[in-house]
Amino acid sequence: MSHFVNRLHGSSIHDLRFVSLFAHSTYVTVAVLLCAAAAASHGSSQEPARPAVAAQAGEAPAELPDAPLATTQTAAPSSIAPLGSHRNLQPLSPNQKFVFATKNAFGLPSTIFAAAGAGVNQAQNLYPEFHQGAPGYARYYWHSYADQAVDSYVVDFLLPEALRQDPRYCRLGQGGVWKRTKYSFRRLFVTRSDSGEAEFNTSQILGSGVAASVSSLYYPQRDRTASLVSQRWASNLAGDGLLMVLKEFTPDFNRAIKSLGFRIAGRHQ
Predict the structure, then answer these.
(1) What span, in angstroms and rounded, lies between the C-alpha atoms of 102 and 96?
(2) Could you give the CA distance from residue 264 to residue 194 in angstroms, rounded to a whole number?
(3) Domains of the chain: which residue ranges?
C-alpha cells in the first residue's frame, strides 16, 4: 500500500520499490473483489436485500454482527448514507466492543491478510534481520499478524470506547458495485457514534496511526523509522478498507451461492 505523501520525502529507493509492489498487489486484490461482487450481485439480483433485525432494547445479543444496512427504503441523495438512520440499533457496551475487537483480531480474514502481507514483505526483504526461508517467513508472519491484532484492539475497542463511536460496519446494501465499493472505503473516514450520528472516524484514522507506533516496539531498532511506521499506518488503513469491502458484499456472495445451490439441487430432482 502506498504510504502518505508527506512521508515520501527522504524515503530510500528500496522503500519506494516496496510501496510500489504493495500498492500493485492491493489494486489487484480490489479488482478481484469487484469482479466477484459483480458476479454475485448479478446472480442474486432477483432476491431483495434483507436488513438484519436489530437487537431488542435491554438485550445483549449473543453475537456481534456488523451493523445493518445504512439506508432506509429511500436511497440517500448523498454518496455517504445516513449512518444514524437506524433508531433501533443499540450501542455496544465496553465488553461487547472488546469481544468485537477480539473477533476481528483473530478471525479468518485477519489470518489471510497477515499471510499475504508477510509474503510481500519477505519478497521485498523489507526486514533483513528476519532472513529468508521458512523461519524468515514465520518471523514476517507473526509480526504481520501482531500488527493486525494491535490495530483491531486500538481501532475497534480502545478508541471507540474513549470517543463513544460504534466500530461496526454499516452496509449500504444497494446500488451498483462501484458505488458500494466507494462507500466502503469512505467508511474509513465516516462512522456512526454511539448516539447514532454520522461523524468523522477518528477511531479508525488516529487508531491506525497509534497501532502502527505501538507495533514498532517489537520490531528491530533499525526498523523503527518514521518511514516504516508510516508504511504500517497506511497498510493498516488499506487492510481495514478491504475488510469493509468484503463485509459489504459478503451477503451478496452468500445469496448467490445459496441460489446456485438451489438451482443445482432442482436440476437433480
Answers:
(1) 10
(2) 44
(3) 14-44+93-267
**220 exposure class (CB count in 10 Å sphere: 0-12, 13-18, 19+):** exposed
- Judged against a pLDDT cut of 50, whether residue 65 lies above it is answered with yes
Per the structure block, which three cell numbers stand in for 231?
508504511
- Convert the chain into a string of H (helix), E (strand) and C (coil): CCCCHHHCCCCCHHHHHHHHHHHHHHHHHHHHHHHHHHHHHHHCCCCCCCCCCCCCCCCCCCCCCCCCCCCCCCCCCCCCCCHHHCCCCCCCCHHHHHHHHHHHHHCHHHHHHHHHHHHHHHHCCCCHHHCCHHHHHHHHHHHHHHHHHHHHHHHHHHHHHHHCEECCCCCCCCCCHHHHHHHHHHCCCEEEECCCCEEECHHHHHHHHHHHHHHHHHCCHHHCCHHHHHHHHHHHHHHHHHHHHHHHHHHHHHHHHHHHHHHHHHHCC
In this prediction, residues 82-105 reach a mean pLDDT of 81
Q: What is the pTM of this model?
A: 0.65
Secondary structure letter of residue 65 according to DSSP: P
- Asked whether the beta carbons of 159 and 165 are under 8 A apart, the reply is yes
Place of cell 489494486: 27
Q: Are 114 and 235 in contact (CB under 8 A)?
A: no
Q: How many CB atoms lie within 10 A of CB 60?
A: 11
- Strand 198-200 to 190-193 pairing: antiparallel
Strand, coil or helix: 165: strand
Q: Which residue has the higher pLDDT, 254 or 25?
A: 254
Q: Which residue matches cell numbers 505523501?
A: 5
Residue 112's alpha-carbon distances to 80, 218, 260, in angstroms, are: 29, 21, 26
Would the pLDDT of 36 be above 70? no
| Sheet with strand 198-200: strands edge to edge | 165-166, 190-193, 198-200
